[in-house]
Amino acid sequence: AVMTMCSLLHTKVYTHLRRAIAIGSCCALALAEKRRAIAIGAEAPAADMPSLSALWATAIDGMIEVPGCEALTSPDGVLYLAPAAIAEEAAKPPYSFVWPRIFSKSVIFSLTAYNPQGMETPVGLNRRANLELEEDIKSLFNQRAPPRAWWHSFGFNIEEGWREDGFSVAFGAEERMFARKAMLQLAYKYRQAAIYVYRTEDGVLLREVVWCDASKQKTHGAAPEQMVVLTSPPASTLAAKYVSD
After folding, report:
1. pLDDT band at 240 (very low <50, low <70, confident <90, very high)
2. Average pLDDT over the chain, rounded to whole?
3. Whose CA is closest to 60, among 36, 73, 79, 45?
4. C-alpha dist (Å) from residue 103 to 51, 122, 191, 218
């Protein structure tokens, strides 16, 4: 009986030990992967800032299922916004336009967690970072001045073969200063170089690139650009609502 009890005790201890080793191994792998993700952003040199400025200035935005904008979206629910300077005839008039309330009464910020500091990052790490950013955005609704709405969005540049998925967050215009600070803090957390800020002025939609680094804003910041609605999706796989790996 004593030997049987010892045998059972030995088996139980061995089982717990194996379980502890397995848990420890999983934690170690997760920590190693996280450190690798940090290293990708921390060790790589930042992308060329003037090149990023040019890329973003000519990028088209796709906003998915924007509240109150159904009349302006594509059949699959994407609102395409392009700089008026590069938009072709397939666009709404680039001048005075009656924008839905989510645009006319709000300030809208677009940001992502993809490709920190403009450096190419593996798709899996980008998507994982975006999931974390999404949770951070949702937590904003518990703050003093919560957003009015948020939705998925993406930016793309067909000539450069570039696309990044992300989010857009709308705040009341009266909360623009608080919202700008909160959005820049999020962008900084995910090591982003800049964000987009949308606002309307005399019926015109303007998009501004706002750098997270104040010194870069002085050096690379440009005047807000006028944006127009594309009446049909651009002919590119980059313009798809969702893209696969």
Report:
1. very high
2. 82
3. 79
4. 29, 33, 27, 27
pLDDT of residue 86: 84
Q: For tokens 């920590």, what's the residue?
A: 31
Nearest CA among 110, 131, 112 for reference residue 66: 110
Q: Residues 6 or more apart from 150 whose CB is under 8 A from it?
A: 137, 138, 167, 168, 169, 170
pLDDT of residue 96: 52
Quote the CA–CA distance of 46 and 3 in Å, as a whole number.
Answer: 66
- Output the pTM of the full model: 0.78
Sequence-distant (6+) residues with CB within 8 A of 198 are 103, 107, 108, 109, 110, 168, 205, 206, 207, 208, 227
